[in-house]
Structure formats: C-alpha cells, structure tokens
Design a protein that fits this description.
single chain, 158 residues, 6-stranded mixed sheet, 3 helices, 25% helix, 23% strand, binds tetrahydrodeoxyuridine
Amino acid sequence: MKDLDITIPVKVASADDLSASDRRLVELAREATYRSYSPYSHFAVGAAIELDNGQTVTGSNQENVAYPSGTCAERTAAYYAGATYPDARFKTIAIAARDTDGNFVKAPIAPCGACRQALLEYETLAGHNVRVILTGATEHYILPSVKSLLPFAFTEFD
Ligand code: THU
C-alpha cells in the first residue's frame, strides 16, 4: 500500500498583487453580491466570470422559500454565461461574499460541491484551466483551475 498525497496550489494575494483584469473581476463579483436575493440566509454571494469572447457575466445567489430550489451565485453566473454565450469559454471566475452583517467576508469562501462539479463541466468544455479567485476582504486566494478544487472529480464513464 502506498500513500497518495494531493496538494492544492493556492496563491494568497493582496489587491495590489492582482492584475488589472483580475481586480476588475473581483470588483464585479463584489458588486454582484448587492444583487443577491438571500432573505433566508442573509448571506450574499456574487460571482463574475470572464469569458474568452471578451464578455464578463455575473451572478448572485437566488434563494427560494423552498430552500433547495435556490441556486448559488457560481451556478447562476455559470448557467447565465452558458445560456447567453454558448460558444464562449470560461477563463476566470471570481467569487465574493458578504456576511449576515453585510460586510465582505474576511476569509474567502469556496464554492460548494455542486458548484465545483458544475464549474468543472465548463472547464472541461473550455479544454484549458479556468482560474478561480476566491475573494476575502483584503486577501484573495487564486487557484489555477477548477480541477484543483475538486481533485477526485466525476468526469465521465470509462
Ligand atoms: N452560497 C453561494 O451562493 N455560493 C457559495 O459558494 C456558498 C453558498 C449561497 C447559498 C445560499 O443562498 C447562501 O449562500 C447560504 O448558504
């Protein structure tokens, strides 16, 4: 028996470390939190996706009184991108969140399992890595791919 150690490469960046386009994407994700519909959790999440056609789309969490019917910000943005620009491929996604006091979270939040699986599909479609920026109030985590968030992903049948 041998061990298999899986490590995830994460860059911890301040706003100054970000490129201008990443800073813009972070800002768009933050702005998207103000369009969240989250009367049940009071936790507002925003996502912004940069596409290879030059467009950027955003999404926010949309909740429902029947709780499981609600959708996370990441999937709202991903499906909006897919439905609006079916031929465009994802380049980078930035995710931001505000806590129940309305402040941007100190430590970045990461997408739930369902969103990781959904985003992985678009990374597979793209045929290249889709960068992920998890934004905190002052620190951002930059991951090189969606796959790095979901190392043992279910992709397809053999
Ligand atoms: N949520 C997201 O939109 N994205 C995440 O990455 C984590 C959780 C939403 C779902 C729900 O509307 C609220 O945040 C609280 O879980």
